[in-house]
Amino acid sequence: MKERRERRKAVYAISIAAELAHCHPQTLRLYERKGLLCPLRTSTNIRLYSEDDLEKLRLIHTLTQEEGVNLAGVKRILEMREALEEMKTALADMEKEMERMSREMQEEIEKVRRSYKKEIAILPSREILKYFR
Fold it and tell me: Does Coiled coil show up as a keyword for this record (predicted)?
């Protein structure tokens, strides 16, 4: 979790981010206008890019330069990847909830079993037999 937070921490100015991504700063501005990137901004409106942003830039570069995908297609791919990540998180949360509920149900079943054992122990033997006929 800490590593994930570190990857989201915006630390690179546009010139450094462009250099690390092997593109021109104007390209980063274009990607922002198209909604492909959303860098953080300082109080003085300076764009700051994180490791996650750089990873996204590398993906955009691969999709556009090596795979021939246009920017509209890239945007759709990025949206689908984000939706997939959200679904994975939701599924993991549901699995945790299901495990918790299963444990609670098992505990409740055990309580009921124990209560029946107590009731059966209290009943006279002829009363017990009528439950098995």
Answer: yes
